[in-house]
């Protein structure tokens, strides 16, 4: 039985924002564990209330807008970044009966479109700040995100060809016999790397490289405006993990456990992978990042499409 749509929207939004806040603590604890040091451990049991303390601190920090900034665009940019991530979750089906628009016939295209719109938030933040470091960071982000959107879009074409649909729910149902991570292993690897670059997480966090650009595109931001960029990044990590689960790991499908729990466990495992990559890998040079995309990921994406098409033609009836 499907819950009323206002309930689904409200609960999904609350869980997503809560998860993004929780991840600010969870990531630091995992980093501490893997790097053999203490993480947050002072506020609450195991430091779990550190996220609450950080939230209170951000709320009470001065909401300062630089006098040299373009005020309207400066305020709008963080909202664009946050809204594109939240809207993308609208088409991700948690279970067969719990999604806002999981049956949208262009669901996958909608996600790619929203991720493309997210570039505007970053670029406008750097431009409106009227600061050299912020502008350099936003230009890096624009080139990186637009480039890796190409590879992300190409990597999922194999999934669409096998499922025969752009609808996220149909893609999950098409994996009832075999998860697409097996026949689409190459596409899954490309999508994962593109997702890390899209969310500009370590090791691909060059738009915010602190040893080069201060804080990159959000150098001039403080208070809740900075908090929105911060939460949007963690919500983006959850989004890319949820998309990987939906497209390649069978979505909510699994034995014994409830479907929602399977979806949560798979997504959580991928979020931990994101954190592990931050702990383990160094940041590449910017030219190395772009070369990885255009010289390696693009040919691999095209190879995956060609191989998938050839196999489907060979097995086509008649």
TrEMBL record:
Keywords attached to this entry: Cell membrane, Membrane, NAD, Oxidoreductase, Quinone, Translocase, Transmembrane, Transmembrane helix, Ubiquinone
Keyword DNA damage in annotation: no
GO cellular component: plasma membrane
Pfam families listed in its UniProt record: NADHdh
A single GO BP: aerobic respiration
Catalysed reactions, as listed in the record: a quinone + NADH + 5 H(+)(in) = a quinol + NAD(+) + 4 H(+)(out)
Subcellular location, principal: membrane
Top-level taxonomic group: Bacteria
EC number: 7.1.1.-
Transmembrane portions of the chain: 6-26, 73-100, 106-127, 148-166, 178-197, 226-249, 261-281, 293-316
Membrane topology term: Multi-pass membrane protein
GO MF: NADH dehydrogenase activity; oxidoreductase activity, acting on NAD(P)H, quinone or similar compound as acceptor; quinone binding
HAMAP family: NDH1_NuoH (MF_01350)
Entry's family note: Belongs to the complex I subunit 1 family.
Functional description taken from the UniProt entry: NDH-1 shuttles electrons from NADH, via FMN and iron-sulfur (Fe-S) centers, to quinones in the respiratory chain. The immediate electron acceptor for the enzyme in this species is believed to be ubiquinone. Couples the redox reaction to proton translocation (for every two electrons transferred, four hydrogen ions are translocated across the cytoplasmic membrane), and thus conserves the redox energy in a proton gradient. This subunit may bind ubiquinone.
Self-association and partners: NDH-1 is composed of 14 different subunits. Subunits NuoA, H, J, K, L, M, N constitute the membrane sector of the complex.
Protein name in UniProt: NADH-quinone oxidoreductase subunit H
Annotated source species: Gluconacetobacter takamatsuzukensis
């Amino acid at each position: 039985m499907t819950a009323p749509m206002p309930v689904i929207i409200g609960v999904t939004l609350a869980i997503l924002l809560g998860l993004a806040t929780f991840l600010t603590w969870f990531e630091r604890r995992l980093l501490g564990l893997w790097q053999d040091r203490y993480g947050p451990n002072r506020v609450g049991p195991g430091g779990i209330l550190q996220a609450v303390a950080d939230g209170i601190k951000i709320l009470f920090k001065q909401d300062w807008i630089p006098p040299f900034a373009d005020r309207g665009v400066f305020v709008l940019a963080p909202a664009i970044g946050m809204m594109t991530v939240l809207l993308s979750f609208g088409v991700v089906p948690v279970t067969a009966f719990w999604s806002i628009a999981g049956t949208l016939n262009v669901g996958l295209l909608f996600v790619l479109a929203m991720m493309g719109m997210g570039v505007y938030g970053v670029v406008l933040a750097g431009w409106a700040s009227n600061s050299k470091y912020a502008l350099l960071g936003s230009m890096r982000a624009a080139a990186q995100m637009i480039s890796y959107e190409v590879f992300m879009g190409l990597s999922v074409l194999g999934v669409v060809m096998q499922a025969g649909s752009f609808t996220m729910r149909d893609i999950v149902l098409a994996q009832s016999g075999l998860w697409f991570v097996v026949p689409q292993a190459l596409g899954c690897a490309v999508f994962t790397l593109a997702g890390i670059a899209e969310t500009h997480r370590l090791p691909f966090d060059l738009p915010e490289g602190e040893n080069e650009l201060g804080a990159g595109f959000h150098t001039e931001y403080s208070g809740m405006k900075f908090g929105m960029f911060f939460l949007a990044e963690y919500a983006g990590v959850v989004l890319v993990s949820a998309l990987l689960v939906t497209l390649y790991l069978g979505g909510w499908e699994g034995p014994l456990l409830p479907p929602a729990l399977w979806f949560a466990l798979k997504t959580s495992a991928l979020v931990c992978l994101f954190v592990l990559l931050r702990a383990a890998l160094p940041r590449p040079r910017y030219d190395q990042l772009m070369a990885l995309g255009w010289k390696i990921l693009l040919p691999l994406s095209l190879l995956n499409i060609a191989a998938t098409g050839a196999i489907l033609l060979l097995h086509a009836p008649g």
